[in-house]
């Protein structure tokens, strides 16, 4: 009986590669670092499919819904999000009450601390240019754009060809990953 790595599932291949990588690091030591390029290639190939997959699967998935199903998913999903946000806010409000008051010592000068630039949530979530967001991997903006386009597709007539194309692209991206 011979060992054929092509008969293993993708999960088994990844685990086998992980184990072989650990053993190479243990037994070969520093020279195994030259194999780092193979790991970087693998990671970059996986990352290459993430943004297009998010875009295509959200647009196609939401676009195939009819109005009744979209309303049902929207109310259920919106209710779940509202519940989770409420839970998070309540946790943030009451969690400090579980810990005693601490007085902190000053071991450094606060004048040495450089203030970080704040995050602009508008730019993070609302894309002025969706192609810029995709090129710079601004995932929240890509998701918002995809959701808006998918919801707009719900009311479009004769969308079956487009939805089939989105499904085919989703399948192709999954095969790449």
Automatic annotation (TrEMBL):
Gene3D superfamilies linked to this entry: Sodium:dicarboxylate symporter
GO cellular component assignments: plasma membrane
Subcellular location: Cell membrane
Keyword Membrane: yes
GO molecular function: symporter activity
Topology term for the membrane: Multi-pass membrane protein
Pfam families: SDF
UniProt keyword annotations, A-Z: Cell membrane, Membrane, Transmembrane, Transmembrane helix, Transport
Keyword Cytoplasm applies: no
TM regions (residue ranges): 9-29, 41-65, 77-99, 131-156
Chief localization: membrane
PANTHER family: PROTON/GLUTAMATE-ASPARTATE SYMPORTER (PTHR42865), PROTON_GLUTAMATE-ASPARTATE SYMPORTER (PTHR42865:SF7)
Name of the molecule in the record: Cation:dicarboxylase symporter family transporter
Organism: Dissulfuribacter thermophilus
């Amino acid at each position: 009986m011979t060992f054929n790595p092509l008969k293993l599932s993708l999960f088994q291949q990844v685990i086998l590669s992980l184990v072989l990588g650990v053993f190479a690091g243990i037994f070969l030591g520093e020279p195994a670092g030259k194999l780092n390029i193979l790991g970087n290639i693998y990671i970059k190939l996986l990352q290459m499919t993430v943004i297009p997959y998010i875009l295509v699967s959200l647009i196609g998935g939401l676009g195939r819904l009819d109005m009744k199903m979209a309303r049902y998913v929207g109310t259920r999903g919106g209710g779940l999000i509202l519940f989770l946000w409420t839970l998070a806010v309540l946790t943030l409000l009451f969690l400090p009450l579980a810990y005693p008051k601490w007085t902190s010592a000053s071991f450094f000068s606060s004048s040495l601390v450089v203030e970080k630039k704040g995050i602009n949530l508008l730019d993070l979530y609302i894309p002025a240019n969706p192609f810029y967001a995709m090129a710079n991997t601004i995932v929240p903006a890509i998701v918002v754009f995809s959701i808006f386009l998918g919801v707009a597709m719900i009311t479009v007539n004769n969308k079956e060809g487009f939805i089939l194309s989105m499904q085919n692209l989703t399948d192709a991206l999954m095969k790449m990953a």
